[in-house]
Amino acid sequence: MNKVHVKNFESAPLNREDVTKMLKERLPDYSLEQPFYNDPDLFRIDMEEIFAKEWLFAGLTCEIPKKGNFITLDIGDNPVTIVRGNNGEVNAFHNVCRHRGSKICLKHRGKTAKLVCPYHQWTYELDGSLIYAGSEMGEDFDKKKFPMKKIHCRTAGGYIFISLADNPPPIDEFLDDLSHYLEPYDLENAKVAVESVMMEKANWKLVIENNRECYHCEGSHPELLGSLQAWDDTEDPMVTPDFLAQVAEKQAHWDECEVPHLHKSAYNNRNRIVRMPLKEGVHAMTMTGEVACKKLMGRISSPDMARCGSCTCQIHGIMGKVIT
Hints:
Blueprint: H1 16-25, H2 35-38, H3 40-51, E1 56-60, E2 69-75, E3 78-84, E4 90-94, E5 109-111, E6 115-116, E7 123-124, E8 130-132, E9 150-156, E10 159-163, H4 172-182, E11 192-195, H5 204-211, H6 217-220, H7 241-256, E12 264-266, E13 271-276, E14 307-310, E15 321-323
Antiparallel strand pairs: 1-10, 2-3, 2-5, 3-4, 4-9, 6-7, 7-8, 9-10, 11-15, 12-13, 13-14
């Protein structure tokens, strides 16, 4: 076990300096120390330093296709609503009324002409501006000073990203790449056919660690390897000559179809996009390997477009949503 400085939990809570020291002293390529997965103070720091500052994938634009469509989600203790505006723009707000702090949108998804607080009926336009606050606020009350609190929101390739930070990190390079790689699928005009929710009783890092490698798949998810290889990079030490030959063949086909496929990364590999073939003879990530829907997305002309993986997606299934 890697020896690092860890506070006695009974004496004082972990703070940012403790976490920084633990990260600096950890052995590269080894698991993080136990507190990173089960200490409540460290989890709070995670939420403040990562989830409250980074860009987060929040949904798909096709989930809010028309003016007034909205979806809601919670980022830790921060309720968020994302709504399609009057001019087709996608806006994100803290889902909190400026009057008494009540939630405004109470459903997971819906459609509304205005954003109305159910408590005292303060009413906001779809751009977040306050348009009604009731006569009890007095004639001198200035509605312009109390719009809904906006959240940074960007869209690309049919994806919606939000950041709770005042000054979020750069994302333009990644969004440009994402738009380019997802253009063939026309996700903006897709529809959500089925949505399932899976609650994982684990620290978020365990979920991400398992998502980023498939070396455990043979033992834990053998059905997944009916369609996928256990790697998604030609530089992986596990790749075989047959796989490299298959990649070359598929890349020639993708070039003919003008479908982008070259490995792209941004911001020191924090974000990456790569298109890798499914197993030979497999057309989709289904139990049988056969296509689940004969209707292809966007301008895709063949089911053999394989998978386009990024830091947030698999084209055949996104955040538990099945898109058609």
